[in-house]
Design goal:
single chain; 13 strands; binds UDP-4-deoxy-4-formamido-beta-L-arabinopyranose; Rossmann fold; alpha/beta
């Protein structure tokens, strides 16, 4: 049985990827420092797959701890690296926390992969690297724009570090550039657990519908888009998880055509904020309190994926749509709140 390490494996996307890996027959080892999640997620994964993954609480910023982990677990067929800080706004206020966590951790991880001849590496990247696209849908050849936040910069720098290591070592890597992950597993046993006030749209919507938030603020309806609100590519987190299984399989089978490749992982469909609000009301039957307010600084107007490369080279295509994702997000919210 092939064994894969998932760093940040108790996080939102990480936990869904662990489930997808186990369903695909992989043995999984999880590292997480629990800084942005709860150990209860391990129970949720186990309840879904009936297979408790190996879990080690570990902070990847501590070089000696990372080395000790790999002394114990060095017969790995692949590594999927999620563990990172990911709040755009927080990264602007605390850049050093982001550079230390997101860059140092990656370097220590790659050093151990090299020391133990672990050559298959999947990296959690983001469409943030594109900034405001020049044309849409956006493909992987689009220019990388100057980062608009330290968080986005850590994703760009990380891709460059991985690429450079691939060119001078046995490492093979794939960076998956996520668009906007939303939704939850159909069992509602795992899902998104934002700490504090949600920054992202869909968890704020579900918390508003659950009565936890008074109303959703729509950050601007005066953009140059059909209904004036920003457009994004909302991808179901289970589809996103399944893309990681396809990517790690490609490297393990040595079917990669390059040492380092990047893939856009989205649905290829753009939806505006107001379209998401209306879709949520339609799918759930809940009326959503929302009001239009000023624009949020740093928001790009519109971004959605050209998914041709992932469809053709990964053999992956999103199987779920926005309404599936919103229905699953609402089911998860109701489960968490006991509604
Ligand atoms: C989506 C749209 C907001 C909240 C960020 C990161 C990206 C990834 C996903 C980590 C925008 C609008 C939002 C609200 C709103 N993060 N909105 N009211 O900014 O596209 O992407 O999160 O990997 O890297 O950049 O996602 O969900 O914050 O915003 O109107 O209360 O919803 O203005 O147009 P975003 P988001």
């Amino acid at each position: 049985m092939k064994k894969v390490l998932v760093t940040g494996g108790l996080g939102y996307i990480g936990s869904h990827t662990v489930v997808a890996l186990q369903n695909a027959g992989y043995e999984v080892v999880i590292i997480d420092n629990l800084s942005n999640t709860s150990i209860d997620v391990l129970e949720g994964i186990t309840e879904i797959t009936k297979t408790p993954p190996v879990f080690e609480r570990l902070d990847l910023r501590i070089k000696s701890d990372v080395a000790a982990f790999f002394q114990k677990h060095n017969t790995l067929d692949g590594v999927i690296h999620f563990a990172a800080s990911k709040a755009v706004g927080e990264s602007v206020e605390k850049p050093l926390l982001y550079y230390e966590n997101n860059i140092n951790s990656l370097v220590y991880l790659l050093q151990e992969c090299k020391a133990h001849n672990i050559s298959n590496f999947i990296f959690s990247s983001s469409c943030t690297v594109y900034g405001e696209p020049d044309s849409l849908p956006i493909n992987e050849e689009a220019p990388i724009k100057d980062a608009t936040s330290p968080y986005g910069n850590t994703k760009q720098i990380s891709e460059e570090i991985i690429r450079d290591v691939c060119h001078v070592s046995a490492l093979k890597a794939i960076a998956l550039r996520y668009f906007n992950p939303v939704g939850a597993h159909k069992t509602a046993l795992i899902g998104e657990l934002p700490v504090g006030v949600p920054q992202n749209l869909v968890p704020f919507i579900t918390q508003t519908a659950a009565g936890i938030r008074k109303e959703l603020s729509v950050f601007g309806a005066d953009y140059n888009t059909p209904d004036g609100s920003c457009i994004r590519d909302y991808i179901h987190v289970v589809d996103l998880a399944e893309a990681h299984v396809k990517a790690v399989e490609k490297l393990i089978r040595a079917e990669n055509t390059a040492k380092f490749s990047v893939f856009n992982v989205g649905t290829g469909q753009g939806n505006s904020v107001l379209e998401v609000v209306h879709a949520f009301e339609e799918v759930t039957g809940e009326k959503l309190n929302h009001t239009i307010v000023d624009r949020r600084p740093g928001d790009v107007v519109a971004v959605y994926a050209d998914t041709k490369k992932a469809n053709e080279e990964l053999g992956w295509k999103a199987a779920r749509d926005l309404k599936d994702a919103l229905a699953s997000a609402w089911a998860w919210e109701k489960k968490v709140r006991g509604l």
